Amino acid sequence: MGDRGHAHQLQVHTTQHHPQYADKSRFTATGQHDKAAQGGPSTTKVLTVMGLLPVGGTFLTLAGLLFAGTMAGLAVTFPLFVLFSPVLVPAALAIGLAVAGILTSGAFGLTAISSLSWVLSYLRGTVPGQIHQAKRGMQDMTEYVGVKTKEVGETIQSKAQEAKRGDTAATARNTTTTTTA
User: Fold this and answer.
1) What b/e readout covers 13-23, taking b as 16+ CB neighbours within 10 angstroms?
2) What are the E-state strand segments in 34-85?
3) Residue 173 lies in a domain
4) Quick check: is 142 in a domain?
5) In Å, what is the CA distance from 75 to each residue of 81, 83, 84, 168?
6) How far apart are CA 23 and CA 19, in angstroms?
7) Are the beta carbons of 88 and 81 closer than 8 angstroms?
8) Over the range 113-145, which residues count as b (16 or more CB within 10 Å of their CB) and which as e?
9) Helix 85-124 and helix 43-83: axis angle, to 10°?
10) Structural domain of 94
11) Averaged over 70-93, what is the pLDDT?
12) pTM
């Protein structure tokens, strides 16, 4: 590959040194020097860390001990689970289904009681305000949709009339220019 013969130019930009910007420390609103801006954590941060470090260490130690105890218990009981699995698996399944059935029946019972309570209050005429609010909201929405539909219909009708007038005026101009030509 041959040289291109172009001269290379190098531009050097110098920066001016401003001594007033050399000190990047902060000053307070009263003009006094802020010592915390020079670096280092504040006293409250140091005390917070010193106070929370033992608590965090204690909880971490307890978590480790609980994990070790769990693993030891699992190591001891795992062979028993394997030996008694033909009995334990159906027993666990039966207990799980019984608990699910009890919880489901409780949920259905609670739903039935609340439904009967609502029907009773409806028959007494002390219906909660929610139904009346819902009826009122539906009436308001129906009225709003009717008004909007009427406005849109009127707008379309006026635009159609303007277009019709514009077409007749354009047609009249076209016929006059054609007959004169």
Assistant:
1) eeeeeeeeeee
2) none
3) no
4) yes
5) 10, 14, 15, 96
6) 8
7) yes
8) eeeeeeeeeeeeeeeeeeeeeeeeeeeeeeeee
9) 120
10) 44-165
11) 86
12) 0.32
Token pair of 145 as six digits: 């949709």
For residue range 92-145, what is the model confidence (pLDDT) as tens digits? 889 989 999 899 998 888 888 888 887 877 777 776 666 777 778 888 888 888
**Residue 38 CB contacts under 8 Å (≥ 6 apart), including other chains:** 25
pLDDT of residue 69: 92
User: If you average pLDDT over residues 149-156, what whole number do you get?
Assistant: 88
Structure tokens at 7: 């001269």
Helix (H, G, I), strand (E, B) or coil at 22: coil
Write the single-letter amino acid at 160: A
Distance CA 134, CA 132 (A): 5
Q: Domains in the chain: how many in total?
A: 1
- First-to-last CA distance in the chain? 74
With respect to residue 30, please indicate whether it lies within any of the assigned structural domains. Answer: no
How far CA 134 is from CA of 91, 103, 137, 174, 176, in Å, comes to 50, 33, 5, 59, 62
3-state secondary structure of 27: strand
